[in-house]
# Entry
Amino acid sequence: MSEPAQELWPLSLEAYLAWEAKSPLRHELVGGFPRAMAGASRRHNLLVAALVAALFPLARARGCRVHAETFKLKVGPDTLYYPDLMVVYTPPGENPYYEEDACLVVEVLSPSTESQDRWEKMRAYLGLPGLQAYLLLNPEQKGLEGYFREEEGFAYRRYAEGRVLLPCLEGPLDLEDLYQALA
# Structure
């Protein structure tokens, strides 16, 4: 399917959703403009799968939903992203094609999207009222870095090993276990 006619840009949310539903490629919507999604490496995909396996039991115990890679998160009136993983605690919204308020968002870094994940998406995600943590994982180097909500805003933390207590899920993420998926 071709790109929408340039004279129709920026796209409204409704126009984007209709167009994206028919497109064979996934596109994020950034400020009303569609941006094609890059493919993922094997290591990236394995790390996302390991995250889902690790977080799903915690999410289920708390009554949360877990979405990975193919479900959209609305972060503004004309911006939707496909996070690598998100956890949502609030009841589902009316639109069945996106969530609106994740409590945890995780992006797995790749060379083609790292700057977007670290700057553009980070600013958008930290603006979500219910977000408790935004985490970044590197499939090439064990560890986790992230922004964790505190009373005055968000605090940046970095972990090279061990267990990381995840807010929203109120449970640990074991980095050793997580990165075993890449061994």
User: Anything to note?
Assistant: The chain has two domains: 1-37, 40-180.
